[in-house]
Amino acid sequence: MTQPKKRRFSSHLKLLLLSSLVAIAIVAAKQFNVQELLRTLLIWVESLGSFGPIGFIVIYNVATILFIPGTLLTMSGGVLFGVVWGSVYVAIAATLGATWAFFLGRCLCRDVICRMIQSNVKFQAIDKAVAKEGFKIVLLTRLSPILPFNLLNYAFGITQVSLRDYILGSLGMIPGTVMYVYLGSLVGDLGMLGKTEQSTSPETQIVQWVIRGVGLIATVAVTIYLARLAKKALNTTV
């Protein structure tokens, strides 16, 4: 097998591995009651005592890689550890999980994407522009809880965004993290997480509206910013 063919085979194999990971996550989500499974795991974390934070971080990392929504886990941080330490542990867990997914996206898909766009000058220009403004883009997307956190982790791995900008920009998760952890602390019971009854208190509803408002503003901001960035990049190729 020639060298180019070997590289193509390796790239396709990596893409197949990532596709299989996504497929497994989707099938598992349909076959199993994910919320109940998470609650069972979180009850186990609660029983670990001083080792609970380690178990919590490991579970959060695995969930992030497998595209399992993190809202329930984030809120559980408030139930298990309180607002302050819950926010700290969730921030650590989310950053680590996002970084693992970023590496997976970069290792499994980046070379495939590069070959696909190498003959397209416009796509290359946009990719370089995204890399140049990586910190701002990551920060704005992290400020928006509306945008899919787990999918963005892999998507950023495919771009030229540097690891440094990615990690620093991911600090934008902190405001949303604190608010969701605070919501969890108001619930105070793992068994109540994810149930509609928990959202009846005025205090909880206020926090939820704040989260939605911040998410909407950040989403609009990142959409406008990306549109301008793409337009500027495309103009340089004309």
From TrEMBL:
Major localisation: membrane
Transmembrane segments: 79-103, 166-186, 206-227
Any one GO cellular component localisation term in the record: plasma membrane
Keyword hit for DNA damage: no
Keyword set includes Transmembrane helix: yes
Any Pfam family hit: VTT_dom
Domain VTT: 68-185
Intracellular or extracellular location(s): Cell membrane
InterPro entries on file: TMEM64, VTT_dom
Keyword tags: Cell membrane, Membrane, Transmembrane, Transmembrane helix
Leader peptide range in chain numbering: none
Membrane topology: Multi-pass membrane protein
Stated family: Belongs to the TVP38/TMEM64 family.
PANTHER family, per database record: GOLGI APPARATUS MEMBRANE PROTEIN TVP38-RELATED
Name recorded for this polypeptide: TVP38/TMEM64 family membrane protein
Organism listed in the record: Cyanomargarita calcarea GSE-NOS-MK-12-04C
